[in-house]
């Protein structure tokens, strides 16, 4: 549970303390008119700053955006000028900055996959870490009839999950082969392959063709589809630097994407998901 400290005028959370601490440290991270430091040991600090840019507290986001703007000025993403960024723009540019400067980092590739899957604990929700369920398990829950009148509110409403998938999929595509461990690729392949097979199997059945009024239309199902298709798209892309580490598994995923495309069209799968599958196949 996150600690809170209070005085007569303000409540101080550990997140607020983190944002102020990194802000105070920012001058050491980038000296005036120079590029920022990108020592390996600073990656974790930068990832914490990324999380603060996506915090559900507006004040914390603003503090983090000011810090990120200072670091990103005269960096690889803005080599010739200083920048002043909103939290939303800063978070996207900061992910690009990390991909540019930590291209061989296995820690970054692992974190990127976990961000895509929504599995990385956020500083705004330290209790969010959990094991990754299979897609079939998640889909089984989504297909159950809901009788609860009010859904439990997620803690961080600022994080837009689909945007996170898109941002960190791009990061994975920019990283070098050395950034990927065989174990990470194998685990990712297994989750994606099982998920593609699950989606295709259900969409290929008559009771799976529920279009605009069934489980396919749920926001959670759409997000799961984006996560699944985006990771598959990375793994089959001709531009993926670790492509040869997958061997014949790439062909398996490509065939599964083609099957999902055919089943999805028949089952009225969301147009955006169909478009994402087509884009993944075109890039493979």
TrEMBL record:
<dbReference type="InterPro" id="IPR051954">
    <property type="entry name" value="tRNA_methyltransferase_THADA"/>
</dbReference>
<dbReference type="GO" id="GO:0005829">
    <property type="term" value="C:cytosol"/>
</dbReference>
<protein>
    <submittedName>
        <fullName>Uncharacterized protein</fullName>
    </submittedName>
</protein>
<dbReference type="GO" id="GO:0030488">
    <property type="term" value="P:tRNA methylation"/>
</dbReference>
<dbReference type="Pfam" id="PF26523">
    <property type="entry name" value="Trm732_C"/>
</dbReference>
């Amino acid at each position: 549970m996150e600690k809170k400290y209070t005085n007569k005028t303000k409540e101080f959370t550990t997140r607020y303390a983190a944002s102020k601490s990194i802000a105070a440290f920012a001058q050491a991270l980038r000296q005036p008119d120079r590029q920022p430091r990108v020592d390996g040991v600073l990656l974790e600090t930068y990832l914490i700053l990324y999380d603060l840019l996506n915090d559900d507290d507006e004040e914390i986001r603003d503090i983090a955006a000011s810090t990120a703007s200072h670091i990103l000025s005269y960096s690889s993403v803005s080599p010739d000028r200083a920048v002043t960024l909103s939290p939303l723009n800063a978070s996207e540019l900061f992910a690009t900055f990390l991909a540019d400067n930590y291209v061989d980092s296995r820690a970054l590739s692992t974190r990127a996959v976990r961000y895509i899957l929504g599995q990385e604990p956020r500083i705004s929700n330290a209790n969010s870490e959990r094991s990754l369920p299979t897609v079939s398990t998640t889909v089984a829950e989504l297909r159950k009839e809901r009788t609860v009148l009010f859904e439990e509110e997620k803690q961080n409403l600022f994080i837009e999950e689909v945007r996170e998938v898109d941002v960190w999929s791009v990061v994975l595509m920019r990283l070098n082969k050395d950034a990927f461990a065989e174990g990470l690729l194998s685990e990712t392949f297994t989750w994606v392959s099982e998920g593609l097979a699950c989606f295709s199997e259900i969409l290929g059945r008559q009771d799976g063709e529920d279009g605009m009024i069934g489980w396919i239309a749920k926001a959670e199902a759409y997000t799961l589809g984006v996560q699944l298709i985006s990771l598959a798209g990375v793994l089959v892309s001709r531009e993926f630097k670790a492509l040869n580490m997958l061997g014949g598994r790439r062909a398996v995923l490509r065939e599964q994407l083609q099957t999902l495309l055919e089943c999805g069209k028949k089952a009225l799968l969301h147009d955006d998901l169909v478009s994402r599958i087509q884009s993944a196949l075109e890039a493979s």
